[in-house]
Amino acid sequence: MDERQRILQLRKELHDHNYKYYVLNQPEITDQQFDFMMHELQDLEARHPELADPNSPTQRVGSDLGHDFQQVAHKYPMLSLANTYNEQDVAEWYDSVKRGLGGEDFEVCCEMKYDGLSISLTYVDGKLMRGVTRGDGVHGDDVTDNVKTIRCIPLVLPGTGYPHEFEIRGEILMPWKVFERLNEEREKAEEPLFANPRNAASGTLKSQSSALVASRQLDAYLYYLLGEELPADGHYENLMEASRWGFKISQGMKKVKTLEEIYEYIRYWDAERKNLPVATDGIVLKVNSLRQQRILGYTAKSPRWAIAYKYKAERACTKLNEVTFQVGRTGAVTPVANMDPVQLAGTTVKRATLNNEDFIRSLDLHIGDYVYVEKGGEIIPKIVGVDIDQRPIIAQPVRFITHCPECGTRLVRYEGEAAWYCPNDAGCPPQIKGRIEHFISRKAMNIDSIGPETVDDFYRQGLVHNVADLYTINVQQINGDGSRQKSAMKIINGIEASKQVPFERVVFALGIRFVGETSGKLIARHFKNIDALKDATLEQLLEIDGIGEVMAKSIMTYFHNEQNLEIVERLRSYGLQMALSEEQTAQASDRLKGKSIVISGVFQHHSRDEYKLMIEQHGGKNVGSISGKTSFILAGDNMGPSKLQKAEKLGIQIVSEDDFLNMIEE
Ligand code: IVH
């Protein structure tokens, strides 16, 4: 057999074993045998780049090449379902269906309502072509590379008989077990915990690194088939067919006819769903016949032929013993309720967040109160009420602290904000450590040789008090007793390498309040170097599209603080990038000089940010809203109707993506 044939054979066999393991749950070979074949295929593919295939099983391991997700339009919009919470509502829906069908008989397909994030998968000739998130229902993010790492989603269908082209929708989930393990790891690393498996799955799927997605072991259940040439008129029958093509479909689907059968299904799964490996929050009821679905049609937001029944969040009652206070990296103080341990939705609960002072007041919370705790899809429980009848006579109301529990400074509350803050940002330990952790984080300076524990060590040893101190540490200081030579070298090299991190990320890394990753970029590109940014006036800051008053003021405050200025000067002296690179500032042309350009719609060739940059590099200015001064609108697909109207009224030219690219390339 030649190498080409061997590659094809290995791909086929690996797809097949993957299906048996992840969809059917019936592996035929050991993990080692699987890995062995995978390695052989990887080696062969590396030797034959001409035989590359985007749907090869090797693509499941992902890569960490970051990519901004392209926005794409859904072929069929992704609607949501109307929610119901009791049997009465279900009965009303059932009657409305009966009326809508003029009394015709109908069947209802009952299925689980998965609590993850919805995904739309497109297959052409049995190959996965695209995976798109729900987005706003009309456009979503193209996350194909990340979706490919989810093992139960077939890249090439193992079965036969599927239509030439179809779409299948379902839910991507992080199984409970994986979620718990992930949060345990994050707790150890002192990283913020995910509130629930849905947030964890969503954060994972939108990650820029498909290798990270691959490592998180997401799962998927598919529950809706769409296309021009579907096998049957029944929703249930179509999904059964899809299961034969190789998909993992919604579990426990059942076709019923009467209301009583629907109630029975709901009651059965209320208890039984706790044994499922993934989170569910209700039941979905769908009229089974597609013909009848068409008769019933849609309201503006959701189909009339389907409805969701949501289970009540679980609730428990327990005693509040104490309220403690935590200080975060921004200095915000969060009150935490400490309670007698109580069993709730499968876990023991003894702590709950109390959000802020107003929340405590609204509950009129007293120490010793019996409180109701709920865990709706959230893993962090909430206190939702107090049983006043059980309040001890001498109970004292919960009082918010007046001074920081970490450094003793008097707390302040800024106008319009719910939180109390410790204003001692330069001297309060969790704030100092938090700022350093932010500075070294992946999206900032990316010094991944240092973790939160190391930051803590360095701080306690007195090696670092602020981010500039990182650059003065030497190997001997870390390597104290001489046993940590290797890791010390790694840390120093990581710190050294960060000196090459581009200016726009340095701006983000400084940790100026409210300045996120994207605004950091906008600010850096606008001012081009730290000196211009340092001296910026409020007016100049507000000129930037996307920077509001709160952020602008916070930037001013940061650069009016002597300590911050000293840190910035020190960072500059250590060699950090304090200006855009020549490449970034180089003016490509002045073809757009003096032009004010509005960007609108969804684009095929480049992201919005890229277009913004192009406009600047050709001497133009990107502005947010259309006015008489707008020179033209760079319009992608689906430009908003109100913008279109305004442009027409003011007689402003609309330039397509291709024309724009020609315009600057000529
Ligand atoms: S069908 C037009 N089936 O619930 C109806 N959706 O509120 C298309 N969901 O965005 C959806 N389990 O993310 C359907 N078995 C199920 C579902 C389900 C969960 C989610 C889905 C959708 C949301 C609707």
From TrEMBL:
The keyword Metal-binding applies. Residues 587-666 form the BRCT domain. The keyword tRNA processing does not apply. The active site is at residue 113. GO terms for molecular function: DNA ligase (NAD+) activity; metal ion binding. NAD(+) binds at residues 31-35, 80-81, 111, 134, 171, 286, 310. It catalyses: NAD(+) + (deoxyribonucleotide)n-3'-hydroxyl + 5'-phospho-(deoxyribonucleotide)m = (deoxyribonucleotide)n+m + AMP + beta-nicotinamide D-nucleotide. Zn(2+) binds at residues 404, 407, 422, 428. GO terms for cellular component: cytosol. Belongs to the NAD-dependent DNA ligase family. LigA subfamily. This is DNA ligase. The lineage of its organism: Bacteria, Pseudomonadati, Bacteroidota, Bacteroidia, Bacteroidales.
